[in-house]
Amino acid sequence: MPTISLDEIPTLTLLYKLKKILPGDDKPTYEASGVLNDKISVIRQDITTLAVDAIVNAANTSLLGGGGVDGAIHRAAGPDLLEECETLDGCETGSAKITEGYELPSKKVIHAVGPIYWKEGSRSAELLSGCYRTSLELAVQHGCKSIAFSALSTGVYGYPSVEASIVALETVRNFLDKESQAEKLDRVIFCNFLQKDEDAYFDNIPDFFPPVVTENVAQEESSTEPSELASQLPDAPTAEPQDAQDTQPSTKKQKTTEADDDFVIVEKDDVKEGQGKPEL
Ligand code: AR6
């Protein structure tokens, strides 16, 4: 499968220029920053095709693989990834651990364990935020300048897309604003798989990463022709990424907490409508 390099992944600055993302109607909560808008990207792609420094996997506490994006990443990385994961002794919900990328085009994989939404209830946001924060910290510690997140917990773990995108955007914005080490990151990419997740990001981004005035084509005399800008975008996927069937929840046993003996069987019926299956 062809890989997508960092310079093919559009930044927010470009997405605003092309009006792929429109400014919100309300006054944004956060201040506009051109520097940050050059650092943030949203893309709808199979994350295993991204040639970036680190991709973030939506793992479970065992870190021993599963379905969805976890399955796709393990398949693309090859068996050495599972071998390294076996040495990690699992991971707590709300945290993350890092491995090599092996046969993936990305150098590293950060395995984050998001909350099971219906199980964690009111703690879900804090735990999901912990996944994003820990992943960013790990990326910086390991010299990764570009990091691509899958939409953690929004598949089998049932986190509603809009709520999850708000937690992700807020955590990343606060990290980039407040952590001096964040300067080492050149690009943070939100990599979605389903249209509903991309829509959630496009709707919420203007509140957390608003356009600076000159990014709004309506208010500026653009020096670059729109057709020239559009040619900088990678081709939009014409079909859902391969392995789409893997977003169907597996009916095999899944370890869902740190406790060794605590397994749940996730049946298809447990998954809210539209959460488990790509919209083809
Ligand atoms: N590239 C990018 N995103 C993807 C891909 C892909 N190839 N495949 C799926 N997604 P899920 P969770 C999206 O269910 O909800 C696993 O079995 C998908 O559309 O993979 O955190 C683990 O082992 C959704 O938006 O992860 C755990 O047991 C997002 O990835 C459990 O599922 C996350 O969906 C974790 O559940």
Automatic annotation (TrEMBL):
Coiled coil (residue ranges): none
Top-rank taxon: Eukaryota
SUPFAM superfamilies: Macro domain-like (SSF52949)
UniProt-annotated stretches for the region Disordered: 216-280
Record domain Macro: where: 27-209
A Pfam family matched in the record: Macro
Polar residues bias spans: 216-230
Basic and acidic residues biased stretches: 265-280
Name the record gives this protein: A1pp-domain-containing protein
